[in-house]
What we know:
Elements: H1 6-31, H2 56-71, E1 83-84, H3 90-93, H4 101-114, H5 131-137, E2 141-142
Parallel strand pairs: 1-2
Amino acid sequence: MTIFTPQERRVLLFLLAALLAGSGVKVYRSRHREIEPHPASDTLFPLTTEVDSSRVPELDTVIRLVEQRIDSPNPPDLAKNKIDINRASQREFCLLPGIGMKLAGRIVEYREAHGFFEDIEELKNVSGIGEKKLSHIRNMVKVRETTGR
Length: 149
């Protein structure tokens, strides 16, 4: 004597399988947090509605450099359009040769923890930047005078 018909058993089996699959997906998502997208998959400088008026001159420089980098196989002339290391964002640091997202993040973190850079040489205090890397980027960065530390 069976309680369920063959069709009812198939429906119950389907519902049980769907429940198990849904539970498996929930467990997987809870253990594998969303990974940040690769910088190349994102626009280099996302558009925002807010503009920091203290950085407007640098934004013009950055936009020009990005356009030059996109439109030309040659790298932008950062010797003429130096990046201010006291104001640059993580993405702006990525314009420099040999500086990726992780190292750029460490530069920004160092600046936030220790205050503004007083000299370009202070970049060597950031983990991952030694004399060799600094010599490659030295003529592409500047330290604009800032008030306070």
